[in-house]
Amino acid sequence: MNTNSANLMALAPNTSNKRETVCIFGTGDFGRALGHKMIQCGYSVVYGSRSTQISNLIPKDAEVLSHAEAAQRAVIIIIAIQRQHYNFLTPLAEILHGKVVVDISNNLKLNQYPESNAEYLAQLLPGARVVKAFNTVSAWALQSGALDASRQVLVCGDDMEAKQMVMNIVHALGLTPLDQGSLLAAQEIENYPLQLFPMWKFPVFLSLGLTAFFFFYCLALDVIYTYVYENNNFSFFIAITIPNRVCPVMALILLGLVYLPGVLAAIIQLYRGTKYHRFPDWLDKWMLCRKQLGLIALAFASLHAVFTLVSPIRSFVRWRTSKGIISQALNNKTEPLDTTNAWLSDSYLALGILGFFFFVLVGITSLPSVSNSVNWREFRFVQSKLGYVTLILCTAHTLVYGGKWFLSPSAYRWYLPNIYMLSLVVPCTVLVVKFVLIFPCVDKPLTQIRQGWERNPKSSE
Ligand code: NAP
């Protein structure tokens, strides 16, 4: 059978469950997993291998031939071999001429080679129609059928028809093809599986750093100070009391840090009188990771809610309550209800509950599946307006809780302020600046600048 008739057979419309024949070069982990999945989905699979001996690892119903023989049996050839071995393809250039050659390879490091593996393959096989695909799914996910990782397969290539053929296969395997454009996108697609939460690095390191700082700050003031000056051993505070102080503080500071770059950007635009100058790099990067900062803040707020709920069952809290009751009984005196305190305590709880509710709402809306179902205006409303409502409620919750201590000298152990005071610096700054920015005399020029108006427009020559 000559090559052309094989091509025609492979492309012929199919009325049965059987799909076309696909050739896979390489009987390694990925080649076998992909072949297995393809056979399940009705494709005929023929392997091109250095050894034509069938091992029991090879999927049943698949054939194993030499590379040249296998390539002649299909229009689509998937190269399941590492890039460093691609040289063996050069003698096959003629057989692969006009065929759809799919590069699925990944590298060990970001930007490991000057050109992408797919572009390198295209240079080795100038007559082939090279398409990049499948490198974002793992052999394990394909083989286990669980597909518990991403189902998205990023596809790119210069030949539209070839790309469409590969996307049809991706689709038939129950995966989601995402067209990324021409082969120029291959480098980015190859770097994609090597990235480890790129947008999370800064928020995670910042959170870890601040958490460690506040933990040791509380340890010094609540455990070491009381041990040294009051001879009380409160070391058990490390388990719940200190985490329950650090978590709300972290949640509030990080939430403030989500909105701080927005007000800084507004100040910079007002100062420059234009939106057509780039922000400093650090501000750009900060703005890009606001969602991650917000989600970490939500995690701290959730932990705070759980720690607070377990308070009544803590031995220390039960001891303190019974001590109060017993001392009232011994003194034969019932303390009257302090309505001011009752008001403060109920208000701070109500503000906390409302703040947490809005916090969860804003967090849920930032999830892609939810944000995809709202339009841009609705998304902005939730993220910006409701986000500020959350910040106001959480700041008020902290102020009402800690307000009475701010002026008390006992709150300044070792002349240091309580962490609740420190936690208010960022959110209060953001809220005060935001309050100034919404004044009509400031808001009007800012809105004009954001619509393209310039204070000193460059004259066009
Ligand atoms: P592998 O298990 O090491 O298999 C590679 C296959 O390449 C070998 O089984 C062999 O097949 C062939 N080969 C090895 N040396 C060769 C040479 N000198 N000349 C010609 N062929 C040679 O690797 P793999 O995990 O299947 O990965 C294959 C490709 O898929 C890689 O580019 C990888 O980046 C990519 N990938 C893998 C995964 C994954 O989860 N494993 C995920 C995405 C992408 P024969 O013995 O049949 O000739």
From TrEMBL:
Topology with respect to the bilayer: Multi-pass membrane protein
Subcellular location: Endosome membrane
Needed co-factor(s): FAD; heme b
Domain (Pyrroline-5-carboxylate reductase catalytic N-terminal): residue spans on this chain: 21-107
Domain Ferric oxidoreductase: 249-394
Record family assignment: Belongs to the STEAP family.
Name of this protein: STEA4 Metalloreductase
Organism superkingdom: Eukaryota
UniProt source species: Tachuris rubrigastra
Keyword tRNA processing attached: no
TM ranges: 204-229, 249-271, 292-313, 348-367, 388-407, 419-442
Catalytic activity annotation: 2 Fe(2+) + NADP(+) + H(+) = 2 Fe(3+) + NADPH; 2 Cu(+) + NADP(+) + H(+) = 2 Cu(2+) + NADPH
InterPro entries with a match to the protein in the record: Fe3_Rdtase_TM_dom, NAD(P)-bd_dom_sf, P5C_Rdtase_cat_N, STEAP_metalloreductase
Ranges in a coiled coil: none
GO molecular function: cupric reductase (NADH) activity; ferric-chelate reductase (NADPH) activity; metal ion binding
GO cellular component: endosome membrane; plasma membrane
Alphabetical UniProt keywords: Copper, Endosome, FAD, Flavoprotein, Ion transport, Iron, Iron transport, Membrane, Metal-binding, Oxidoreductase, Transmembrane, Transmembrane helix, Transport
GO biological process: copper ion import; iron ion transport
